[in-house]
Amino acid sequence: MKKSAELVLAVDLGGTKLRSAVVSKYGKIAAVSNLKTEAEKGPEYIIDRLVESLGTLIAENQFSNKDISGICIAVAGPVDVKRGIVTSSPHLPGWHNVPLKKIIAERTGIRTFVDNDVNAAAIGEYVFGAAKGVTDFVYIAVGTGLGGGIIINGQLYKGADGAAGEIGHTIIKENGPKCSCGNCGCLEALCAGTAIEREIRKKLKKISATEVARVYGKAANEITAKDVGKAANEGDLIACEVISNAAYYLGIGLANVINVFNPQMIVLGGGVIKIGDIYVSPAIEVARETAFELPASTVKIVRSKLGDDTGILGAAALIS
Ligand SMILES: [Zn+2]
Fold first, then answer.
1. Residue (of 302, 107, 201, 40) closest to 73 by Cα position
2. Ligand 1 center to residue 73 CA distance, Å?
3. How many CB atoms lie within 10 A of CB 238?
4. Of 59, 201, 291, 300, which residue is the least packed, with the fewest Cβ within 10 Å?
5. In angstroms, what is the span from residue 24 Cα to ligand 1's centroid?
6. Cα(234) to centroid of ligand 1, in Å?
7. What's the mean pLDDT in 235-257?
């Protein structure tokens, strides 16, 4: 790839993975570094490793700092974007008001931006992905939790304090299961990864450990949402029931989004969406049946095209 200041360093700082990449302004990934976040080791350790990995990416690919026009870090958690501060994160223990933008800019000498990962992903879908050219859409990431990024008129809608888009914490079922935010019955607590894992464990209590091991090859407390998806896709009835219930609630959440925003498109991303049609198709059906007829009939509901690169491409899009 031709060296130019049109390259950016994009970072996806999640609770499990720390991915960094050199990306062109056209979304072409020139080099990638994949590390485990080791979130339990706290912000200082992670920042040291991040700076080190950025240095290695530049050096190993024979770039210099002059070739890089900026760094953008997409963080799993709430960010004060104007000041570049990670205010807190359920996925990154010990991160409280960390001035990440300032620290990284000082240590690398490169201008730096910090934003929330789901907002970055929404911009990534707009610039490089499934919603290219779509000016009004909502990006929904269903993973361990559920996050949303709202694009109105081609711009990310952040709200008065930058806190908009928390679709996962709209309350769907009064007195429903406890959510990571402290409330009960949030969409996230009914349809995302932790909900699927909680429900399968509840159901498997009635099943013998031998039978659980036969279906999953592991103990009930080790089963992930991905495992439940796989079992459902292979026809396991209990797994199918859990996925079907989660899909129903996702559908209700999508219907609410359709009624509030009347978007041209909803883009679904995140690990749990990879469970596939068995989860996504009934959710779309429920959404279309539940939302008002006109917006439900026009909205396109599609899956992300960027896959695991959504975070870094989103970060790159934010500064391109
Ligand atoms: Zn919640």
1. 107
2. 25
3. 19
4. 59
5. 36
6. 31
7. 98
Closest C-alpha to 16, from 31, 44, 46, 36? 36
Query: Which stretch of DSSP H or E encloses residue 8?
Result: strand 7-13
Residue closest to 176 by CA, chosen among 192, 160, 164, 162: 192
pLDDT at 235 over 90: yes
CA distance 64 to 54: 11
Model confidence pLDDT, tens digit, residues 27-81: 999 999 999 999 999 999 999 999 999 999 999 988 888 889 999 999 988 889 8
- Of the candidates 179, 208, 172, the one whose C-alpha atom is nearest the C-alpha of residue 194 is 179
Cα 31 to middle of ligand 1, angstroms: 36
Residue 77 CA to ligand 1 center (angstroms) comes to 13
Q: Please, is 110 exposed, middle or buried when counting C-beta atoms within 10 Å of its C-beta (0-12, 13-18, 19+)?
A: middle
Token look-up 């695991």 returns 308
Q: How far is the CA of 36 from the centre of ligand 1 (A)?
A: 27
Q: Across the chain, what does the average pLDDT equal?
A: 94
User: What is the Å distance from ligand 1's center to 57 Cα?
Assistant: 37
pLDDT at 65: 85
Q: Report whether pLDDT(204) > 70.
A: yes
With 80 as the cut, is the pLDDT of residue 90 above it?
Answer: no
Q: Is the pLDDT of residue 161 over 80?
A: no
> What is the percentage of the chain residues whose pLDDT exceeds 90?
82
Ligand 1 centroid to residue 40 C-alpha, Å: 23
Distance in Å, CA 63 to ligand 1 centroid: 43
* Beta bridge partner(s), residue 35: 18
